[in-house]
Amino acid sequence: MEKIPTLSYIRPFVSTRNACKLCSPLGACIAIKGIEGCVPVIHGSQGCATYIRRYMISHYKEPVDIASSNFSEETTIFGGEANLKIALTNVTNQYQPKAIGVATTCLSETIGEDVASQLSHIRNDNTNSNLPSLFTVSTPSYQGTHMDGFHATVLEVVKNFAKKLPSADKINLFPGFVSPADIRHLKEILIDFDLTTTILPDYSDTLDNPVWDQYYRVPKGGTPISELEKMGEAYASIELGVFTAVKQGGQNGGTEVSGASWLESEHSVKNHQCILPIGMNSNDTLFDILSKISGKDIPVKYKIQRGRLLDSYADGHKYIFGKKAVVYGEEDLVLGLCSFLDEIGVEVVLAASGANSGKLQKEIIKHCPEHGKTIKVISDSDFEQINEACNTIKPDFLIGNSKGNYIAGNFNIPLIRVGFPIHDRIGGQRITLLGYQGTQELFDKVVNAMIEYKQNNSPIGYKYM
Amino acid sequence: MERIIKERSTQVHTIGTSAHDLDCEKKSLAGSVSQRACVFCGSRVVLYPIADALHLIHGPIGCAAYTWDIRGALSSGPQLHRLSFSTDLRERDVVFGGEPKLYTALTELIEAYKPKAAFVYSTCIVGVIGDDVEAVCRKVSAEQKIDVLPVMAEGFKGTKKDGYKAACDALAKLVGTDNEFQAPPFSINILGDFNLAGELWMLKEYYEKIGVNIITCLTGDGRINEIRQAHKASINVVQCSGSMMHLAKEMEEKYGIPFIKVSYFGIEDMADALYEVAGFFKNNEMLQKAKDLVSKEIKTLLPALAPFKEKLQGKKAAIYVGGAFKAISLVKALRLIGMKTVMVGSQTGNKDDYNLLKKLCDEGTIIVDDSNPNELSEFVKEKGVDLFIGGVKERPIAYKLGIGFCDHNHERKEALAGFEGMLNFANEVYASVTSPVWKFFKR
Question: What does this protein's UniProt record list under function (chain B) (predicted)?
């Protein structure tokens, strides 16, 4: 049996070889799963829904139901409204959902479907009037990546549901595309600051259920629509991630808006944006924001967590100093990881993303004071480009989703699995990266991976590190 | 909530309640959350195992990303099929056309990876934006001097089955292009085995032991040059009949090669496959060798299965798989280890398949075509099953309800075909059904 072929030379490719990104409807489905009682419908071919389900199920290990309007040749010629209506009726009868989110595809966008007006026809025509709330998001797969679909959905949900109401004693949290365990940890932190929060999206239960004593067609959990409506009355938003803005069409090149920035401009909800809180620096920023918003001191519990993390930095720093890391994935994840690795003395030699906002390099330099300027950043990248680059940069470890495992295998180095997807292990949905606590788990993993590598490659082996 | 969507009620049948045929081979109902994928999926799964070909997916990134290294289809040599290549169409390409990008992508990849042939899969929007994929393939083929085969697999143009046909059409263009080759006597092609977890290698050994030569397998451990010689075989032995029947029929028409349908799952079907091939060649020595092989295998296998059977006796199983032919074999294989099938269904079965299942299963068994998570969860609950056999999308339904599960889809890592596979199957079923973890679940 031969090895999977790897080119020994580097040349530019027009094609994408082993994509380091997914298509935008997938991101939309994940965000839709964070709304209580909401079922995603993909307006396009049956395969889009099924492939995305399979991809998500393999990571979350949960039932993930996504309906399709199931285009046929006739649909493609005459338009998809009739199919969409059938799909909405069947989903309503089968799931009795509280809302249905319709994501478009490359197919429905290319034939020029105006789903927003289709939805208003269907709503007006509906004779049995039992349809739930309906909203749509434009997610043509030829535009951007799954993250664009995710953030576009967040923005559409805010625009659809948030009402202008008198100010209330609560805040909004936009966690970005993080794990269910991360969302749960963030909730815990917010509660400890006595903050009442609306989280969008919150799939911490819907994509990581406990076992069931009966089958739930729509899994429990998610942010209730009544809470989404209150997002306009919050006194502050916290937005994790800086690559959250969605390009909005229009003259003069259009503008870039995220759910949080829209609330700020439309409803005067002050937005506090920070990078994904992985590491000491970024968590200090987040906890300062929380302290400021809540008017409370940082709870002792987190001061202790921070202290323990710092203590472990002392215990582990030698084993990772100067180690060379390759980081890949979504831009916000890459930025968060770079900031963390930079502060612990790891040298990031390559930061790659399948996305291409044009801002990754600048943000990395800003948030990585130690080595930021020397980090090689590749946007619009793919795994084969990373693989070939590793030939010359000879990294000590990779950090990112499970799809880079074959590269780690090629170079016989550890892969530290974080992010999405993790298809070759259980527990991807339970990995915590955020907070001092998540950072602690990650730091231990990185240090131990380096120790284990040395131990396994040592001719004598040893019992003490 | 509805148990079954009204429009789907003719696609569900409980044995003993009606004499009607099960409704099938229909396009999935919008909003039903079908477990099926699309035309592209059908062609991709069939051609994927051809290991020395370049597989380029022409479209936006999703279709390629979701099918990267998706099957456990092993290759004894080249591993080119395990890379995922896409033209990754962007908005600009959609507006101005994707042909220039396709041309450049194909050329650069063929130059870099030097494949024996290239398959170019058209996805949904390719036809809509008017790309002439066939013309680009012809041009690159002439320039690069290799076969570049378009696979017309626009997702919306039918169901997964139409994708099987698109794949067979592409294969048919390769078959018969090597006339120099002289086939040894008693030569067959294996159609519809994909060498999941190395199953083909086990089958090959059985066939070789009884004196049968395999020219090519379509498409497990597949090689372009062997496919070119496939028309020299005496017979096509077709498994997974759904995916490969088009090619078998076309080869019968064009080259006069007859075909037989077989299955390699379970002792009975595995033995029948060997006997039928020997019977076709009307060769007594071969038939005797087949009988000897089967009895030798059974002699060790049956005692090895006995302890499993004892523990699994009377347990109930539900089956939901892609092809109905596999479902039929599974019903028999389960019976062999003492288990009873109380629900069985498939994504792509036809009338004959379902009628056979009706005959094979007991009264009260639910038979279902093109099902969905809601129905499947209802059925397994109603029937109180101990085991669910399916693929990745069915697995969480079983586990959420505290039911054992056996993966019989194309991602599995365990060989389940042949005599050896039967023991693996029993072992996996036993491991899942009798695991003590279920004691903590309320059933």
Answer: This protein may play a role in the biosynthesis of the prosthetic group of nitrogenase (FeMo cofactor).
How many distinct structural domains can be found in chain A?
2
pLDDT tens track for B135-170: 999 999 999 999 999 999 999 999 889 999 999 999
Question: Which of B112, B156, B392 minimises the CB distance to A45?
Answer: B156
Q: Which residues contact B165 (CB under 8 A, 6 or more apart)?
A: B42, B246
pTM value > 0.90: yes
Q: Which residues of A touch B392 (CB under 8 A)?
A: 54, 57-58
B395–A57: do the CB atoms touch at under 8 Å?
A: yes
Please name which of B28, B2, B31, B42 lies closest in space to residue B370, comparing C-alpha atoms: B28
Q: Which fold has domain B187-291?
A: Rossmann fold (3.40.50)
- DSSP H or E run through A420: none
Q: Which tokens sit at B87?
A: 């033209």
Say yes or no: B19 contacts chain A, CB-CB below 8 A: no
B156 touches chain A (CB under 8 A): yes
Domain extent at residue A395: 316-456
Query: Residue ranges of the domains in chain B?
Result: 39-173, 187-291, 313-412
Element spanning A303, H or E: helix A300-320
Whether A320 and A269 map to the same domain: the answer is no
pLDDT digits (tens, 9 = 90+) for A303-358: 999 999 999 999 999 999 999 999 999 999 999 999 999 999 999 999 999 999 99
The answer to the question of residue A171 being in a domain is yes
Quote the CA–CA distance of A290 and A293 in Å, as a whole number. 5
Question: What is the CATH superfamily name and number for domain B313-412?
Answer: Nitrogenase molybdenum iron protein domain (3.40.50.1980)
